């Protein structure tokens, strides 16, 4: 029996079968993916085969169907392992806030690089528009300029007040979409605005740290009344890029990718090589310095933290 993983709670998975029934399933024995060390061999969004257990209302996952893509992150405390956030996505939205808490440009870039690496279309949602001062609006305009000129669609919303929510709803129709971001950026409030019947728990910002507190414990896929699914995930405090070779990194930056063929050396790493077209563009202010800083940070294996 084929089914879709709609919720993961660690050792148990909620499966929606093709007939529309929901079954609680578990993995029997060792179930690992070839070539990838992950803390979760099955993720929300996966299509799997299930065998019902005799005289039980539960099932056993017996087979994982091939994924078209996925979003993955390095486990911060387990450097050689990773967590698959969600699989088989049509698009991924990164929810960003400029304050309470602040999302750094480095974090945004790491998310975009991960999406590029695993062939997921990424978009950016700037939330909490209702809190922006005039200075904040200027920073927002700068952020949007950086990413829209690279081809990443950016949207401004206030999930609390419902501003521009209809724009996002139109993008979700008939798609499997991931909502991700730091804890406290308003993902749960946004999902409740997009899908009132979801009744996702929301939380407050910690006063002492100005960081969000986790309100979503496990990834969950919500069916949309207008077609498609919306995947809610736990807030990400740290995002380590996983399983990328340094020499592959340049192609994951669109502004590098378009210039790499003009570099003097075919294996140019865009750091200190003579005749580097990327460095030439950086010197001419045709590449945003913050993006190049992110490239160096990822290249040298540093972590981005808030």
What would you say this structure looks like, in words?
This protein is α/β, with parallel strands linked by helices and 306 residues long. The chain is 22% helix and 24% strand. It has seven helices and 13 strands. The chain has helices at residues 105-117, 134-148, 165-172, 187-194, 254-257, 277-283, 289-299; strands at 2-8, 12-17, 22-27, 47-52, 58-64, 70-74, 82-87, 91-96, 122-126, 154-156, 175-180, 220-223, 228-232. The strands form three sheets. The chain has a six-stranded mixed beta sheet with strand order 10-9-8-11-13-12, sandwiched between helices. Helix 1 (105-117) packs across helix 7. Mean pLDDT is 85; it is low at 202-217 and 302-306.
Percentage of residues in strands: 15-25%
Low-confidence stretches: 202-217, 302-306
> How many beta strands in the DSSP annotation?
13
Helix proportion range:
10-25%
> Which structural category do the helix and sheet elements fall into?
alpha/beta
Q: What is the global morphology? A: globular
What is the H/E string?
EEEEEEEEHEHEHEHEEHHH
Question: Biggest β-sheet, characterized?
Answer: 6 strands, mixed
What distance separates the N and C termini?
Answer: 43 Å
Radius of gyration: 20 Å
Number of helices: 7
Would you tell me the overall average pLDDT?
A: 85
Strand ordering within the main sheet: 10-9-8-11-13-12
């Amino acid at each position: 029996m084929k089914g879709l993983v709609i919720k993961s709670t660690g050792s148990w998975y909620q499966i929606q079968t093709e007939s529309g029934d929901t079954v609680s399933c578990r993995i029997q024995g060792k179930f690992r993916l070839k070539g990838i060390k992950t803390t979760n061999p099955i993720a929300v969004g996966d299509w799997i085969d299930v065998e019902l257990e005799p005289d039980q209302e539960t099932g056993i996952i017996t087979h994982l169907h091939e994924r078209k893509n996925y979003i993955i992150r390095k486990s911060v405390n387990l450097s050689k392992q990773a967590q698959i956030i969600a699989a088989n996505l049509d698009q991924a939205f990164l929810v960003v806030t400029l304050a309470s808490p602040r999302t750094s440009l480095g974090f945004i870039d790491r998310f975009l690089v991960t999406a590029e690496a695993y062939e997921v279309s990424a978009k950016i949602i700037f939330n909490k528009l209702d809190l922006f001062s005039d200075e904040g609006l200027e920073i927002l305009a700068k952020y949007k300029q950086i990413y829209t000129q690279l081809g990443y669609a950016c949207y401004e919303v206030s999930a609390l007040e419902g501003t521009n929510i209809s724009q996002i709803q139109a993008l979700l129709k008939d798609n499997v979409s991931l909502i991700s971001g730091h804890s406290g950026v308003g993902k749960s409030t946004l999902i409740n605005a997009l899908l009132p019947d979801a009744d996702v728990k929301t939380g407050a910002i910690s006063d002492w740290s100005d960081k969000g507190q986790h309100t979503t414990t496990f990834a969950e896929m919500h069916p949309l009344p207008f077609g498609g699914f919306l995947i809610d995930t736990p807030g990400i405090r740290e995002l380590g890029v996983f399983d990328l070779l340094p020499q592959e990194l340049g192609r994951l930056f669109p502004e590098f990718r378009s210039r790499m063929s003009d570099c003097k050396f075919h294996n140019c790493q865009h750091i200190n090589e003579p005749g580097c077209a990327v460095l030439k563009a950086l010197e001419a202010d045709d590449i945003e310095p913050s993006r190049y800083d992110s490239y160096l940070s990822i290249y040298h294996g540093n972590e981005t933290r808030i």
